[in-house]
Description:
With 227 residues, the chain is an alpha+beta fold.
Amino acid sequence: MEAIEDLAFKPCTSSLYLRPFRLCYRQNGTKKFWDFMRTHDSVSILIFNTSRQCFVVVKQFRPAVYMCEVERHHPQVFQHQDKESFSRLEDPLPAVAGVTYELCAGIVDKPDLSLEEIACEEVLEECGYRVPVTDLRRITSYRSGVGVTGSRQTLFYAEVTDQMRTSEGGGQPEEGELIEVVEIPLEDSMKFAYDETFPKTMGVIFSFMWFQNNIAPKLQKNKIKTP
């Protein structure tokens, strides 16, 4: 995952996933405009393995995160860029600078499938667990990137067992995915959530907190009842 080499970048003039626009409008009598990007909505899934009492998350290299770190260390990297330029990074950072921990997730790009069906596909492809649609629990939906994309992400919860794992997961290499499946023990989850040395999405922190408020108390009660 961290064998990243031959790094180069240039302005993006077309994309399958992002479309830049400018909205011009008048608000309270004042003319304004706002630049934004249109992209796909998405689903994410909080996966809890009841066999081993751990959360199943994914770890992957994110170029956008990597380039933010590059700019933080080399502020001049994005200066003087135009549509014709193609810049090589002469002093690249280690690839680990762009590796993040995330919930299993995927974009909503299959109109013939429900959000639940897309979520189950992602769980199988990325983490290797075969989860029936009826076993998913919808937690909530929310807007992400409200200043740039405004896309909607729907969050689900799924409980799995070791017996439900049918493959190693890892994503679809033909789509450029290279994903590592990571298990976070329940007892370490909140420490992990707030440990900034493990770069992670807000979805991880929020969903772990949701679990502590909605699922963990039931687990404690079951332990008390068990002789």
